[in-house]
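Interim report, section 4.2 (structural modelling).
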Amino acid sequence: MANKAIIHVDMDAFYASIEQRDNPKLRNKPIAVGGNPNSRGVVSTASYEARKYGVKSAMSCKKAKILCPELIIVPVNKEKYKRVSKKLHKIFRKFSDKIEPISLDEAFIDVTGSNPIIVAKEIKKEIKQKLRLTASVGISNNKFLAKLASDMEKPDGFTVINKNDVEKILDPLPVRKLWGVGPKTEEQLNKLGIYKIKDLKNYDKNILIEKFGKKGIELIEFSKGIDNRPVEWRVKSQSIGEENTFSKDVSDINILRKAVNQYALDITKRIKKSHYLIKTVTVKIKYEDFTVETRSLTLKQPTDKLTIIRDTAHYILDNKFNIKKKVRLLGLTVSNFVYPNEPIQLRLDIDEYMRGTI
Ligand code: TTP
Ligand code: MG
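Predicted structure of the assembly:
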């Protein structure tokens, strides 16, 4: 197979950098972009100045403030970040038609046939000029290595992993750095005495395949720096949802119903724009004691109708939960997307992606 040239771009502290760009008072300061304006929200992301104090994504704003008392918490403005994201993905499209968007601030770009160093420098330059933001880029001959590279010198990074350096870079890294290794797989590997990528590479192949099946084969390949997956458009987030932490814990079912109605309305608008239909409706409840329950219902017929989605959500709320405690957070999600005429069509249309409907 011909040598591929893959670039992975990931914006630095995306939400926080946009806020710092737009408000000079926030520049060079520890800031966090926070979930809820009330004190019960979580940190979506933190500026690099705040990360020095240990503030990071998914941490409660409360804990973040304890770690960094001078932290400035800025409310989330998702619409604004989406607008920036569209411009960002437009820049990517100038350099290749083989793009795999991963999230608002991240994508793979296949530039095989061009000099990836020159292209990546241009991409970074254009992001800086047009968006006044910095990105970290990783360059290699496959997706796994390119993504690993983009994370190595953040922020404002520019990292190339050449064929000859793969072993030297991968061997000492913890297995957690491998694609698809989360806390659970990490624990399973650790139990086998596998901690570093080198340990995995030298482990008995048959045992790994026996234990992990197809994933075992993939893990062995990744540990050697091999990854043959193509850069392709696809729906990554196969769900659309809304959730909110109430400013005060709720015991009144009517308040929950009202919230569900509002979510259903918002979600239906987004489904309609996407041209998809959905089959599964899920309600999530986080109680006052932080325990979480989710209940789903899969419809016989796919739909994009507000009444059906709303009524299904009410049905789940009334019949599939037994709410005995106060509710802290309520969420509604729809998933299991189908195209009206092509039931298993899940490929992402880039224009749809650019319109921000997915
Ligand atoms: P990331 O790329 O993971 O993080 P980042 O861009 O803020 O920082 P960096 O890449 O430099 O490490 O996520 C992109 C955006 O997605 C982030 O700015 C905010 C949002 N996000 C959340 O809302 N919640 C989360 O838990 C995470 C990880 C990200
Ligand atoms: Mg990022």
